[in-house]
């Protein structure tokens, strides 16, 4: 049965439907709490948040609901903020800054929020579920989380990554297919392709690990949910579907762009953050595309585009905003989160009944 | 119900399971007939076959079974065989020829089999089902096929292509997700991405056309079949799953490579034919990758690599063979086609029952 399964009981949720931890202001406490209150699992996308912001958000969520929820963080990596940026990249970005009327070559004071500080809050606040992406969790954090009974979810885009995550002690794997919007969770190198579609990825991971698998990528409605369970997943994670919800903090023009897109419109880009992510193709991506190999890595490029994204948001200029979205974004609905969860459940029931 | 549906009854098959029309010798009359005899729909991948070869194969299939089957052809496009090949491409290919001990710069006498001659046989032989890829069928052929009661299936990789095909009068759409092995059926230009995963592609096409949709891409077992029906498809098309069947004409080393691959091993390449296709990455792809933008288009590059592929096959050198395979190729099983069809049905039943 798709409803009663190990993940739902382990997560203590009514429905095995997870709202993905989209970073960058989309996952407001209101969205997270509404999803959890409706019987799913809301996730605070806290990758770009400071420790203090995370603490405030967790408390705000707990004001709104007593149901379980998750916090998602990015595994940090080494970087060199002193490395000079390629002049071609700097010129292209300053050209965009000129169009937006903001100063050229802004000083960057902070590249990424300190991970240890972020983790300290996750542990102190004893969040029910902790999910992460971009790598593996250090054993000391894993041990601390386990000791406090936190359910730990790692993100894999290939079988190799899923196997490595299982060995590291995670409780569940989020299998992120190539359809997924936003950042690719990929972390193991030397892969001819880590853009494996959900239909191919989920069953291959299910066959190779002994822990439950959460399917992500291209799932927007009851059809996708029923399909994911057919593939062997025990829960689903939806990002784009929740991005256009009323409670989501995504920019109104971003929501509109997502709802008006089509299946061909998204591409994988490194332009905004230095890490591969899927979004609706726009001018910023096109301008930076010729310089892809010269872009600084994450989190440097992410920090370098912060002023551009902030100004673009203020000026409602979607052509310079990161419009992360999955390949089925057109199926998103702009409902309240509670309505969306109810609809997803009802649709999944209907699809499952119809298959017999 | 997944079994009793408009496609199964229209195609007069017991199970809505189609063996894809893989070109290049894989779809022997034995394979096609075995799939059809087992209650599925076998397809002769006749894209590279001459009219006379197609006629012989159709007759051989009919000797083996009285069940319906399909013939698949490639929609031709304009090309200029006189255009000189870029010297970088010519050098790289002659380097491969030297490694294989075959003459440099062979004369090419035939680029593609004449489509009108191929179609004449399909019409004369009144095949039950005709499927095509790489474009749209000219109205005169569509009219002739319809008049003879042939069921016509077009291949789409995007919603736009599906809508265009429906308008052209096809009876069904094969929706080819990005996981699929072999050539991409894409034919409409100006798309940021036509690599849409099956999970995202199928429901979006189902919502936009009024004719039945056949899901393809990443489907290897009952889990994939049940998932495809959940997404709204009314039939499934499997290529890689049938490629390793006993009756398949694929080179034994090619079958072995497919069964020993993994989810990360395939990439999209134009190296072998000038058209994008998914296969297991090998040395030939790697050697030609730096010259991708200089490759001649299909069918010129396809004709230019024919001697290389032939010699590589004779010498069991998989590093120079086109190893077309989907992203879930590792799940293929090397059974007899009859056993595979029976297993697929049994598995699908089990998955569907388990979902309730």
TrEMBL record, chains A, B:
Keywords: Detoxification, Flavoprotein, FMN, Monooxygenase, Oxidoreductase. It catalyses: 3 propionate 3-nitronate + 3 O2 + H2O = 3 3-oxopropanoate + 2 nitrate + nitrite + H2O2 + 3 H(+). InterPro entries: Aldolase_TIM, NMO. Its cofactor is FMN. GO terms for molecular function: monooxygenase activity. Gene3D superfamilies: Aldolase class I. Belongs to the nitronate monooxygenase family. NMO class I subfamily. This is Probable nitronate monooxygenase. It comes from Brevibacillus choshinensis.
